[in-house]
């Protein structure tokens, strides 16, 4: 267990147990079996956004996507509007994924082509996409989604929501394989660790990051589809706050804020920690403001821990 990344995973597993113990103290109903299904209902939407944020951060730059929640909102509205206009719902979902990719490509152009810092570029598109969602709807949701479409997020298989089996787990496995067993994954880590060295080794760094921003947009579109299935309506504020939660998950999971270090397994554990904490505080009737404060404390702790071990990990990666 000398590998700091393995130590990080062990720490996250212990933290998950501690958060669950805290939940059982705060609310006796937390220990009921029904809580597991309730908790897992929240995991896929926030989870896929955390996975997308992890990819963007791993490629370095430093990279971040603050528009991911706004893309989710805008894509959900677009799918609902297309369905309302007569487009078959499944075709509208495919077009929605394409729209998410395009919105991600706008981020990619700003960051990778025009050289705008990712924090500023994606913050600008966050405001643009959020404003567009509000302007087009006047703040009103778009309903009319058929009942059969709710099966994806409301249905259960062995007590677990279907979108956990159908979307979250396959995506997490696919990204783990991508990062751990493919040349593209090696290039992502290389670009995050030392951009110049990666470039001199033949890695097309800007093209790699461009593709990851597009992929992040497509995954936000996937989150929009799950949200649409869950609520059977599209809301202009559906993704509000998701961007910061996804950053919290990525950093807590061990993704270094300057790239090159992190694992999908750590992100998955961080998703479970954040979701468990949120559900525990909700069951204890603790206000939304205190829930945000608790998550903020977790983020501060994760950044401090990240800085404490990040330099050591980065030096090890350069020697490898």
Describe it for me?
With 320 residues, this protein is mainly α. The protein has 13 helices and two strands; from the N terminus they run H-H-H-H-H-H-E-E-H-H-H-H-H-H-H. The protein has helices at 4-26, 34-58, 68-84, 89-113, 118-137, 151-154, 162-181, 183-193, 195-200, 205-231, 242-252, 264-283, 288-319; strands spanning 156-157, 160-161. A two-stranded antiparallel ribbon has the order 1-2. A hairpin with a 2-residue loop joins strand 1 (156-157) and strand 2. Helix 1 packs parallel to helix 12 (264-283). The chain is globular.
Supply the key terms.
mainly alpha; two-stranded antiparallel ribbon
| Unreliable stretches | none
Q: How many strand segments?
A: 2
| Strand arrangement in the largest pleated sheet | 1-2
Q: How many helices does DSSP assign?
A: 13
Shape: globular
The termini sit apart by 18 Å
Proportion of strand residues: under 5%
Specify the structural class: mainly alpha
Largest sheet: 2 strands, antiparallel
- How confident is the prediction overall: mean pLDDT? 89
The helical percent reads over 70%
Gyration radius from CA atoms, angstroms: 19 Å
Order of helices and strands: HHHHHHEEHHHHHHH
Q: Layout of SSEs?
A:
Blueprint: H1 4-26, H2 34-58, H3 68-84, H4 89-113, H5 118-137, H6 151-154, E1 156-157, E2 160-161, H7 162-181, H8 183-193, H9 195-200, H10 205-231, H11 242-252, H12 264-283, H13 288-319
Antiparallel strand pairs: 1-2
Helix pairs in contact: 1-12, 2-7, 2-10, 2-11, 2-12, 3-4, 3-5, 3-10, 4-5, 4-10, 7-8, 11-12, 11-13, 12-13
């Amino acid at each position: 267990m000398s590998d700091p990344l393995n130590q990080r995973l062990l720490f996250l597993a212990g933290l998950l147990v501690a958060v669950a113990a805290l939940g059982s103290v705060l609310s006796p109903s937390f220990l009921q079996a029904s809580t597991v299904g309730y908790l897992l209902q929240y995991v896929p939407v926030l989870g896929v956004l955390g996975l997308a944020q992890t990819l963007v951060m791993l490629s370095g730059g430093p990279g971040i996507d603050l528009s991911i929640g706004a893309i989710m909102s805008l894509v959900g509205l677009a799918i609902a509007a297309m369905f309302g206009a007569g487009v078959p719902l499944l075709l509208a979902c495919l077009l929605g994924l394409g729209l998410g990719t395009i919105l991600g490509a706008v981020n990619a152009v700003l960051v990778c082509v025009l050289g705008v810092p990712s924090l500023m570029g994606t913050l600008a598109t966050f405001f643009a996409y959020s404003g567009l969602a509000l302007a087009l709807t006047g703040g009103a949701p778009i309903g009319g989604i058929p009942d059969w479409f709710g099966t994806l997020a409301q249905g259960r298989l062995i007590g677990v929501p279907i979108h956990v089996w159908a979307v979250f787990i396959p995506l997490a496995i696919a990204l783990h394989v991508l990062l751990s067993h493919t040349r593209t994954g090696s290039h992502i880590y290389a670009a995050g660790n030392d951009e110049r060295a990666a470039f001199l080794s033949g890695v097309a760094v800007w093209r790699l990051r461009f593709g990851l921003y597009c992929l992040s947009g497509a995954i936000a579109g996937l989150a929009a589809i799950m949200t649409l299935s869950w609520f059977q309506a599209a809301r202009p504020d559906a993704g509000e706050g998701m961007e910061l939660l996804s950053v919290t998950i990525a950093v807590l999971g061990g993704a270094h804020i300057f790239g090159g270090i992190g694992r999908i397994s750590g992100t998955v554990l961080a998703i479970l920690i954040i979701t468990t904490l949120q559900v525990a505080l909700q069951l204890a009737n603790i206000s939304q403001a205190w829930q945000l404060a608790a998550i903020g404390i977790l983020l501060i702790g994760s950044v401090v821990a990240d800085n404490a071990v990040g330099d050591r990990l980065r030096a090890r990666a350069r020697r490898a």
